[in-house]
Fold each of these.
Amino acid sequence: MKGARWISFVAARYISRGRKNSPSPVLSILGIATGVFALIVIISVMNGFQLGFIESILEISSGHLRMERLPPGSEMELTEKISALPGVLSVLPFRELHVLLRGRFPNPRGALIRGVPADALERDPGLAGRLQMEDGSFDLSQPDYIVLGAELARHLAVRAGNEVNLLSITTVFGDADESARFFTVSGIFRSDFFEYDLGWGFINIETAAQMSPETMSPVLGIKLHNRWHDQRAIGEISRALAPLGLGGELSLLSWREYNRAFFGALRTEKLMMFILLGLIFIVVGLNIFQAQRRTVLERREEIGLLRALGASDTEVRLVFVWDGFIIGLVGGGVGLGLGLLIALNIQAVFTALEAGVNFFIFLINDISALLGVYIGIGEFAVFSPQIFYIREITSRVIPHEVALIFLFGFLSALLAAWFASGKVSNTRPAEVLRYE
């Protein structure tokens, strides 16, 4: 028997006709499809949440690179020199103060106030894209203007136009009059990151400098076009600043180092989720392995006939491997298509789910009211804003992760078929045909 066309032909007939006492190949295909589908959707939603948190931290708080211990009066020169380097998107100088704020309520609340230039949003497009103004505007043109997070403003019971009393607890030395001042709320922002909305505010950097200890220097938050090129950018910045003789004084940290604990926890969480969900493929692969082994035993007569016609051990084995190839390819393809369809439209799926459940809740409430027994079931929400600080479900589809998930599903079927078909070599045509 020459060529490989007969191998695919026989394998396709085995798939289409099924097996005598074994589970249908359709069940194996559904198992692979379910695993690929579930893993793509869950990992994409997890990516949406995690990358949302990571990007909020990088765009609002730390930047991609953070330069500290600047010599007095050098921030303008350093900002201009670093901004001119290729790969650098923006450079924003800032100062930070830990303060107590008091609004309309007598009880003060702690917060971190960041002093930034009045044109901070023009200098830093990433920051501008993360701050959604709910009231007023991001206006720091006056020395006594302040912009507060939405949750912080709610706790202080203030809105745009109201005044707050700010007491700096960062100041160790200095006049008390410079540490406690009244500010007018010019705007209220929301970042969708609870810690920032509850504990952050912005003032003019010159005002922050007046309220800072003399020993505190400003910090440069550097954003890159590609944050994964952080190590290359550190080298370029160090070489560019070498003629200034500041190499030993400056501290330049990457976002990986500055947020190491938080990002490490997210990476571990994602890895464990990958492993747990990957167990689906192990279970499906074992089922395919058992089904293929049973098939080899059931088709001993056919295997003996193929061997008698001149097929080698490898060629007969490839019939069953091709069987697994078809199961893995079709199952993985179906799961991939459905997974991408749901992951890319996850918000619409949850909206439809909530609408369907709320429709039945509405019917139950109406029927119970007509019967004189009012149940009063509340509106259903998958992620209620009262419980979760989430306004919409996001998902991020990362191509190489999707390809890896598809490959896992495909290989689980292929390897299971390969190991199960090892019994083919034990089949002797003469022994099988002797009794036929």
Amino acid sequence: MVVKPSEMTPITTFKLGEYCLEASVPPGVANVLSGYGNTAGEALARHTDVDKIAFTGSVRTARALLKASAESNLKRFSLELGGKSPNIVFPDAPLDQAMKAAFWGIYANKGEVCSAGSRLLVYEDIYDEFVNKLAERARALRVGNPLHPETEMGSQISQAQLDRVLGYIEEGRREGARILCGGERDTEGEKARGFFVKPTIFADVKPQMKIAQEEIFGPVLATLKFRDAEEAAEIANCTIYGLVSAVWTRDITVAHRLAQRIKAGSVWINAYNCFDSASPFGGYKQSGFGREMGPHALESYTQVKSVWASLD
């Protein structure tokens, strides 16, 4: 096994390598290869001794890896890519739980999560009250140095990602979405030296707006109204992504009908971001193909062979 971490976050993987040595994993079984995607990553994709790659990252990088592999040994891939995941709230839902899940679904890890609930779909009759309460909570979120125990949300990973997030916020303004909170860089105190963005919520977002279609990968929530389950399903499916989703309602019939309709690899009912090592995880459409975890993940690392023997 060869692990190539992101050049932005290599230290965790280095520690994993150290733990493998401490656990007496034989030399050469687990290997850590650091480097940039266009050098180390492409080299792995082209190398004829590499039979399978599991990649987590952007659609753009996935296309580059597939192209490099196509020019070498046509190795197998499983891809866990981006998402623009819908979190759908009906009026009969357990609203306090839905509120908490919607909040941490977008602000956990400052929104840099592939399964972030970056689109919040709220039934029109409860929309205003729900999103306004969510905005109140977002304004109170403690943003700061992640090494401080009281901090609830840290900074973006880099200057480039900060610029990307702020660019999407400006695009949301230009398209006519209404900012309920945040919407700018956070430069208070020591945060001026970092890549901090205030927790941001957009209201009155239309399904075809850029902030409702493209993955921002930051603490920016697009909220949309829906009239019925049919419209909720249409909005949920109107992006190129299909990684995860959630449905909040006490009507189990509606929940399972939507779970069937939504094109996503995971559908949570009255929950969000639930994982288990036995449950396959992966996406539809441009959220990738193949699965992590569960028996489906093991199948992607094995080959089927037929052996025929004549007994005559």
